[in-house]
Amino acid sequence: MMALSESAVADHVCRRWARGEGGSIVTANVDIVRAATGNPGLAALVRRAEVVVADGMPVVWATRLAGEPVPERVTGASLVFTLAGAAAREGRSVYLLGGEPGVPDRAGRVLAERFPGLRVAGADSPPFGFDATEDGVRAVVGRVAAARPDLVLVGLGFPRQERLIERLRREVPLAWYLGCGAGIPMAAGDFQRASAAVQRAGAEWLHRLLLEPRRLARRYLLHDVPFALRLLAGALRRRLTGALRRRPATARFTGFRES
């Protein structure tokens, strides 16, 4: 995970564009961290990205508790706009991939209106399950390759979007890719983000749960919330353990078990 602010991420991408170098960004929210923690293959998938940022206040809090703080939460939904704005200033193009039919097209229009000069190279809403077959993947990759965009926003959910991004990078290596989850329908205006105060309080997940209870209840309540609590407890334990190791042995708490 990189200790970058949102504006620093955009600056990093612009510098890489100027040098003719592509890359990818993973926005590691609680769900992604949970999945990668329990699966070495998914962890490797995340590590292969050039930039991994903390998307989710529990992840940010965990870095602070562990004594290795990141400057701020950087979400995929916000980066959609920040990177599109950077692309517009640089005279570059964006491709939107993922979402229900018509959604990426609407999101592209919103971004083009908000950032004059942004070129929308394409918008694609492939059918559900397209990536289960080689022909389906090849067709989607071929459309992106033909458009030759500079920035590709991929909203398929983890790990599908990251796996597709790895394939896309082989065909269009100079582009930058953002796995943005629900960032495309958010940009299209299909549903609103929580207020800034709710985001700072780390309760945006509750806002999302109220908007999409059927889709998100099981994931959030049965998996992500318990994992977030374990993540925070583990970060605090590592911080305390590190502090104890730096102190003289006689000053350690009696009976404290180091992990």
Please indicate the count of domains.
1
Q: What summary fits the major beta sheet?
A: 6 strands, parallel
| End-to-end separation | 22 Å
Tell me, briefly, the overall form. globular
The CATH class is Alpha Beta
DSSP, total strands: 6
Low-confidence stretches: 247-259
Share of helix among residues? 55-70%
Report the order of strands and helices. HEHHEHHEHEHEHEHHHH
List keywords for this structure.
259 residues; alpha/beta; 55% helix; 11% strand; disordered C terminus
Describe the structure.
The protein has 259 residues and is α/β, with parallel strands linked by helices. Helices cover 55% and strands 11% of the residues. It contains twelve helices and six strands. A six-stranded parallel beta sheet has the order 2-1-6-5-3-4, sandwiched between helices. Helix 8 links the parallel strand 5 and strand 6. Helix 1 packs across helix 5, helix 2 packs across helix 3 and helix 11 packs antiparallel against helix 12. The longest helix has 34 residues. 34% of the residues are buried. The C terminus is likely disordered.
Topology overview:
Layout: H1 6-18, E1 23-28, H2 30-37, H3 40-47, E2 51-54, H4 57-65, H5 76-89, E3 93-97, H6 103-114, E4 119-124, H7 134-147, E5 151-154, H8 160-171, E6 176-179, H9 183-188, H10 196-200, H11 204-211, H12 213-246
Parallel strand pairs: 1-2, 1-6, 3-4, 3-5, 5-6
Summarize this entry quickly.
By secondary structure, the chain is α/β, with parallel strands linked by helices. It has a single domain (6-230), classed as Rossmann fold, CATH 3.40.50.10700. Helices cover 55% and strands 11% of the residues.
